[in-house]
Amino acid sequence: MFLSLTHLQSHNIRLNYLAGIVSIIANSLLFALKYWAGLASGSVALLADAWHTLSDSLSSVAVLIGVKMSSRRADKKHPFGHGRIENLVAILVGVMLAIVAYEFISQGIEKLMNPERKAIFGTLAIVVTSISIVVKEVMAQFSFYIARKTGNTSVKADGWHHRSDALSSIVVLVGIFLQDYFWWIDAVLGICVSLILAVAVYKIIREAVDKLMGQNVPDEFVAEVKQIICDMYGDDLQVHHFHIHNYGRHSELTFHLNLSPDITILEGHNIADKIERELRERMGVETTIHIEPKKDVNG
Questions:
Q1: Closest Cα partner for 108 from 68, 168, 150, 60?
Q2: CB 273, CB 289: distance < 8 Å
Q3: Domain interval for residue 132
Q4: How far is it, in rounded angstroms, from Cα 271 to Cα 257?
Q5: Do 205 and 226 have their domain in common?
Q6: How many domains does the chain have?
Q7: Are residues 15 and 81 in the same domain?
Q8: How far is residue 156's CA from residue 279's CA, in Å, rounded to a whole number?
Q9: CA dist., res. 60 & res. 159, Å (int)
Q10: What is the pTM for the complete model shown?
Q11: Nearest-10 crossing angle of helices 44-70, 85-113
Q12: Measured at the alpha carbon of residue 201, what is the angle toward residues 195 and 205, in degrees to the nearest 5?
């Protein structure tokens, strides 16, 4: 089972790499397409959207770096591995998204203050923008899927970056069709997108920071641990006081185990050791168990 867990970790690393590589290639192609269409049509908005797409490639590069560094083995300076680098990269991508959101709202306000500045669009711009919306949303869903499979926060953040680009392209597309009727529509939609991105940034950074600072052990996780111990020893053993420390792909679990005061130290050690091995094999978590006599459980 331990080998299968190692295989699963390697598989997850490959999936994370795949998400980053696909993102970089697709974003680079979209950037070239949008930039060409922007030059051909004279659309400032499309040129700006092209540079926004290029920023997605930069965030994907950051994700790849994070995956590479976080997959390094534990060493003397980092005995629990380097998995938390994923959370740091997620915060970095979140900051990138915050900058994009700020640019959206700044441009929106500027357009509201200068209504005479209107983008000039053509059929080419419509086609390229439509393609961008579809491709970027597919990329976002792909990144979200990989993030669900691997639990990688930075890949999830990169997915939101793809979503932000799709939203910005929607703004451009809506502006193309409505700007002749409502001069302010492009600016207002840009501000709305910035607010959507702000919510995404908050969720991304909050999740990453929570993991760095430590979280409560989920009830379903505790229930699974208790069930495994119950399967091994019945209801005779009492466990409580759970704490968990997540280091990306590596987790350290501690809890208290109440045993009869009549058993020897060696017997208690053997019970704890067997439980630790079982939890490692079945849940992929390293466990440290503190043994207490049963009479102290309510003391």
A1: 168
A2: no
A3: 2-213
A4: 10
A5: no
A6: 2
A7: yes
A8: 28
A9: 9
A10: 0.58
A11: 170
A12: 155
Element of type H or E holding 57: helix 44-70
Q: What token pair was written down for 9?
A: 């970790």
Per DSSP, 79 falls in state T
Q: Scanning the structure block, which residue is given the tokens 């920023």?
A: 55
Alpha-carbon distance 180 to 24, whole Å? 36
pLDDT in tens, 136-194: 899 889 889 888 887 777 778 778 878 877 887 887 788 778 777 777 776 777 777 77
Q: In what order do the strands lie in the sheet with 238-247?
A: 238-247, 250-259, 286-293
Q: 53 and 189: one domain?
A: yes
SS (H, E, C) 88-149: HHHHHHHHHHHHHHHHHHHHHHHHHHCCCCCCCCCHHHHHHHHHHHHHHHHHHHHHHHHHHH
- CATH code, domain with 18: 1.20.1510.10
Q: What's the maximum distance between 2 C-alpha atoms anywhere in the chain?
A: 87
Any idea which residue has 């207002």 for tokens?
188
Q: How far is CA 122 from CA 36, 107, 147, in A?
A: 13, 21, 37
Q: Which residue has the tokens 């929570």?
A: 210
Tokens 């009727």 locate to 181
Strand partners of residue 253: 244, 287
Integer Cα distance of 194 and 173 in angstroms: 16
pLDDT above 80 (res 269): yes
Query: Which one of 81-90, 236-245, 255-264, 290-299 scores highest in mean pLDDT?
Result: 255-264
Q: pLDDT tens across 104-148, in order?
A: 788 778 877 876 655 566 688 788 889 989 998 998 898 898 888
Q: 197, 104 in Cβ contact below 8 A?
A: yes
CA dist., res. 121 & res. 156, Å (int)? 33
Q: Residue 144: what residue type? A: F
Task: Give the tokens for residue 40.
Answer: 């051909």
Q: Of 80-89, 163-172, 223-232, which gets the smallest average pLDDT?
A: 80-89
